[in-house]
Specification:
Strand content: 35-45%
CATH topology of the largest domain: Helix Hairpins
Number of helices: 4
CATH architecture of the largest domain: Orthogonal Bundle
Order of helices and strands: HEEEEEEHHEEEEHEEEEEEEEEE
Distance between the termini: 88 Å
Structural class: alpha+beta
Largest sheet: 10 strands, antiparallel
Helix content: 25-40%
């Protein structure tokens, strides 16, 4: 009897203890849930207008990614044609020059004396030719009168012809000496700008030593190497949108020439794109962009705004829920990619299905945000002019 009573008491105590523990856990869970809800209600991310953009129809260009070097159509390396000391050099890097302008002079003393020597030799050869001619004329008259033999006349004729040849050779030598004298003066082959100066005043230079480099910046082109398979789709007249050395503005270029053969070693085919507006650009800059093949009107967003940290790609849109605004993860289907056809935005765009025109989308620079996170804007609310429900179903919003 006592044993049964003891068991009943223990059972009652266990029941009371379990009820107390359960009640304590319930109270603690309720407190934690209330604290979490309060924290979620109070936390808001502050955004600016630069963190979002409005989805709209956009014309993008599908094309071939290209890159190359900007080169001047007219480019020259000014080399010394004769050896000697640089007596004068009148230009430096960045100086504009005109065609035919004197750029540098090599000491002409030696070549001046050679020219004078050649001239004197030509004068002496001319005198010898005139003497031989008079002798031949005299002997010809004497032969007609029978005073000398025909052999003597032939000898005088040979002497005259030899003297005449010597005179011509002396004139040619004088012309060569004159050419060397003229080559001591370096002139600009065309109008342009000096890009490099490799020799200094008083320096002795050898034949074919580089003295200056110059370019004509009025006509620039981009030399683009393409694989043989990619070059098959390129034709003369196609346009490209290029970004020069990470500048914000895009530059338009047009295919004007194509190499008829592949390069040895790399097997690449060189394509030349002439820049429409070369003003402000420089020879040797790096260019990259898209050689446009097809323009398409689609509903597009920047590729950086599409997140792929979940199994399905999605964008982060801002939608209005009551009087508040919050982030919502909208799953999308990506389509074609390309660049803005207007050239105003250099970033890559992608066509999407599953999002409506007018949706407010977070830019990629903002980073990942939790679904249903509350947000607010520092300035006017961009949703004030947007539809209350800017998200459409994939069936009603597709890339065309």
């Amino acid at each position: 009897m006592k044993l049964n009573m003891r068991r009943v008491v223990i059972a009652i105590l266990l029941i009371v203890l379990s009820a107390g523990i359960w009640r304590a856990l319930s109270v603690k869970r309720s407190q934690q849930l209330a604290a979490t809800n309060a924290a979620q209600t109070q936390v808001q991310i502050e955004l600016s207008h630069n963190d979002v953009f409005t989805v709209e129809m956009r014309e993008i260009t599908q094309g071939l990614a290209v890159s190359g070097t900007v080169k001047a159509l007219n480019y020259a390396v000014i080399k010394a044609r004769v050896a000697g000391e640089l007596k004068e050099i009148t230009v430096r890097e960045g100086d504009p020059v005109k065609a035919g302008q004197v750029l540098a002079r090599i000491d002409p003393m030696e070549y001046q004396r050679r020219f004078e020597q050649a001239q004197e030799q030509a004068i002496a050869a001319k005198s010898q030719m005139e003497i031989a001619q008079r002798q031949w004329d005299t002997n010809k008259a004497l032969v007609d009168q029978g005073f000398i033999s025909k052999t003597a006349l032939d000898n005088s004729l040979a002497s005259y012809q030899g003297a005449m040849a010597s005179h011509k050779a002396a004139i040619a030598g004088a012309d060569v000496a004159r050419k060397l004298l003229d080559d001591s003066v370096l002139r600009a082959p065309f109008s342009g700008v000096i890009s490099l100066r490799t020799a200094q005043l008083g320096e002795r230079v050898g034949v074919d030593a580089k003295v200056l480099e110059m370019v004509d910046l009025r006509q620039l082109e981009v030399e683009v190497p393409l694989s043989p398979s990619d070059s098959l789709d390129v034709v003369i007249g196609q346009t490209a949108q290029l970004q020069i050395e990470d500048r914000a503005d895009l530059v338009t270029a047009k295919v004007t020439r194509m190499s008829p053969s592949a390069q040895l070693g790399s097997r690449s085919v060189l394509v030349y794109l002439t820049l429409d507006k070369p003003a402000g650009l420089r020879h040797g800059l790096f260019a990259k962009g898209t050689l446009g093949l097809v323009n398409t009107q689609v509903l597009a967003v920047p590729l950086t705004a599409v997140r792929t940290d979940q199994p399905t790609p999605y964008v982060q849109i801002i939608e209005k829920v009551g009087d508040a605004m919050q982030v919502r993860h909208q799953k999308v289907e990506m389509g074609i990619r390309g660049n803005d056809a207007t050239g105003k935005d250099p970033q890559e765009w992608v066509a999407l299905k599953g999002i409506a025109v007018g949706s407010i989308v977070l830019k990629g620079q903002v980073g990942a945000m939790r679904d249903a996170m509350a947000v607010r804007f520092t300035n006017a609310n961009p949703l004030a002019t947007a539809p209350s429900n800017a998200v459409a179903s994939p069936a009603s919003s597709s890339a065309r």
